[in-house]
Amino acid sequence: MKKLSFLLSLSLAFLLFLGSCTTTKQNDEKLSVPYVQYQLDNGLDVILHQDKSDPIVAVAIMYHVGSNREVPGKTGFAHLFEHMMFQQSENVGQDEFFTKIQSAGGTLNGGTGNDQTIYYEVVPKNALEMVLWMESDRMGFLENTVTKSAFANQQNVVQNEKRQSYDNRPYGFNQWVIAKNLYPEGHPYNWTVIGEMEDLFNASVDDVKAFHSKFYVPNNTTIVLAGDFEEEDVKPLLEKYFGEIPGGEKVEDMEPQNVTLTETKKLYHEDNFARTPQLTMIWPTVEQYNKDAYALRFLAQVLGSGKKSPFYRVIVKDKKLAPRASVFSRSMELTGQFTISVNANASTSLAEVENAVFEAFQLFEEEGITEKDLEKHKAGLETQFYNGVSSVLNKSFQLAMYNEFAGSPGFIEEDIAKIQAVTIEDINRVYDKYIKGKNYLATSFVPKGQVDLIAENSVDAGIVEENVLEATQVDQSAIAEEEVIAKTPTEFDRSVEPAKGPDPEISVPAVWTDETANGIKVYGIEQNELPLVQYSIVMDGGHILAPTDKAGVASFMASMLMEGTATKTPEELEEEIDLLGANISVRAGTENISVYVNSLTRNYEKTLALVEEILLQPRWDEEQFELVKSRMINNVKRNEANPNYLAMVAFDKLVYGDDNILAMPTSGTVESLESITMDDLKDFYNKAISPSVARMHVVGKIDQERVVTGLAGLSSNWEAHDVVFPEIAAPKLPEKSTIYFVDVPGAKQSVINIGQNAVPRTSDDFEKATVMNYKLGGSFNGIVNLILREEKGYTYGARTYFSGGKNYGTFQASSSVRTTATEESVQIFKDEIEKYREGISDTDLQFTKDALIKSNARGFETLGALHSMLTNISAYDLPFDYVKQEEEFIKSLTPEQHKELAQKLLDPEHMYYVVVGDAETQLSALKNIGLGDPVLFEL
């Protein structure tokens, strides 16, 4: 599962204005999310929030336990137990948590942070009781199921998660170095959330059971229900399922443990995967909700956010040392840290970067902060608030977090008051108190053999990397068969799954359409829940319009459109957007260029006026041209160190061939980007930007008349011209399946990517292919994931999928596996794809049908989901009720038809097998797969 680090940045991330019984209004009255709170006799805190806008319910359970409750030598337990809680409980069988929730049309996951563990589900409202049954079972009736074999499997899974997230990626060890050196030995943040590999290997069943008994108890937990339910119905259910679980010993909240550095520390590491150097500087600060934490967050914004910030002006614009400089403040339960991160341009001295950091500080001290700076950084708070409450899941997270860490879900009123109260004097004060002249920790991560680039006076960080041939793993085969799991006596028969009521009726939102005089096709959905509007203007074309020797020109041009207009400098354009509290971006995809906007409804016309300037009056700023080019080239260089990126590039080259633009990354290559001139961008703009190929998608609290009226300027000022699309021939399948190996010496994992060209998104077979694939690898309960992760413990995850557009389509099967499991994993993929063509069971087909059809209850909740629906309709000429039509196909699908589709759309004899890993140890073994000698593939 995932680590929920995003939950640690609450105050400015999702702003919830909570009150027990207030109504939602602006200006004079508080915005609110009404809630009811009470406590069961065992100490479980219950929070209920009704939202009947969609027939769904979110359930979030937050345990006040994270890695900070662990002790040295036994790290990673909180995260490891999070995995165990997805396996089974006394009354819910092996892997049935995912199966039952997905069959009901729901989604689920969990995450562990430094301070908390959370589990969540979002389900159609008729499945709520089932969720309460399952969540209560793993809270109170789990420990007997923690057998040696189940535990060993998840030990291996988590070790592979660590390899994937830390060991086998650029800069992956940086957080480990920071934790070990910023916090003293024994401090609860002295280790990473995922823990030490040795501790994970040596952990015992008794260890984790003791950890669970102490912390995973009702009186250390908050449960939140948010969505479509009746209070009088759910209260008895909560008492029934959770009330009999005994509370544990009192778990005392931990007191802040702020740290100071008695000297500046500098460490370095030669990174096997890095291609560009990275400098990170960290100053210790204060815990969350401390008054200074609010001002520190504003300080980070002032220093590093935007083109007017000191860090951008000194490091990026003036000295051209890096494409960006990130500054952020993070406050946690026990303490905080203020971080500057600079991923420098290739071959750049980090000593120069460090000096530039202090020059940026000096510039900040000289120029100070203006009231307009403060206004700009506060302007987006209202928009962020509404985006944060656009889903019942987000609301459930926030209610739980405030309750556990601030003592009440209503703490937001105090929280927002502290945000609004921050002054210029506060920001200057915390700069002087925590940053100016204070000791700090600096880490230099540089490519192998480039130690000359490290910051001055740095010493080796002492990282010991895992030997790929001696990978840590628990031998699952040595564990004897275990006895039947004992069941704890209960007040009622928990082995009986509660019945679900009738599936809720799904109504597809009404879509309206229009067209401007110059040819822009407009699609809209009016949803009045929040005063927000999301819209995009999408133009067909994008990357496919570029010649292969200019790959990346579409992305380059898209970036340049945001670098000022004819009447606004880049800085002025950015500030205009910020003062509206809006987000505007331009992106280039494989087959389109899009302008995306998220704004308060009241600012619709103002944002649209800016979009018109961006599209029709580009500035073509020469200075920004060089900065964007440098940024894009260095991003490509960084990507070239990422095994997953290498696997993608190799696969595309094999499928499409060297002369096809689809074989080239949309971000371009170093060579293609270096060749692009300003004239190339202007030429591409002139041939690609036209209303004749434009479609607009608008969702939110805005009606058709206002949308169309606002488009008057774009309609009258934007002249149409024909856009000429190249002929892109469908590639042929390879003559036979062959293994291609990309060498990354010393890789801790092998990235496997197997597949072939397949049907495009416009084919009648595309949706059928997606349905057919679901049980193979389209979900957590897909066959390949159940074998490679849940049975073997070789990987953190494995999947298969179909993807495509108008001009292309592929089938791919992928995973990152432990290096020493490469051969067996490739063989498993090959065998399971071949077997899948022989048909699946009636049970597996019914699981597919239930999961896909019932999940539509969640499909129209957020503006993002509605916007995605409109873009699909317009891009692929789908009927407005295409969701219902897909449902009819799924309902009628028979096992025989499923088998026919698998045989038609999967061709295992003609696939590309791409493996990115350590050739010295793994290449020769792949001969045993039976696909001939593997080919060492050069990119």
UniProtKB/TrEMBL annotation:
An example Gene Ontology molecular-function term: metal ion binding
Record domain Peptidase M16 C-terminal: where: 203-381, 675-852
Keyword annotations of the record: Signal
* Residues in the signal sequence: 1-25
The record's annotation in SUPFAM superfamilies points to: LuxS/MPP-like metallohydrolase (SSF63411)
Q: Which InterPro entries match?
A: Metalloenz_LuxS/M16 (IPR011249), MPP/UQCRC_Complex (IPR050361), Pept_M16_N (IPR011765), Peptidase_M16_C (IPR007863)
Superkingdom, taxonomy of origin: Bacteria
Domain Peptidase M16 N-terminal, residue spans: 46-163, 533-643
Record keyword NAD present: no
Q: Report if keyword Nucleotide-binding is assigned.
A: no
What PANTHER family does this protein map onto?
METALLOPROTEASE, MITOCHONDRIAL-PROCESSING PEPTIDASE SUBUNIT ALPHA
Q: Which family does it belong to?
A: Belongs to the peptidase M16 family.
Q: This protein is called what?
A: Peptidase M16
Where does this protein come from, organism-wise?
Answer: Draconibacterium sediminis
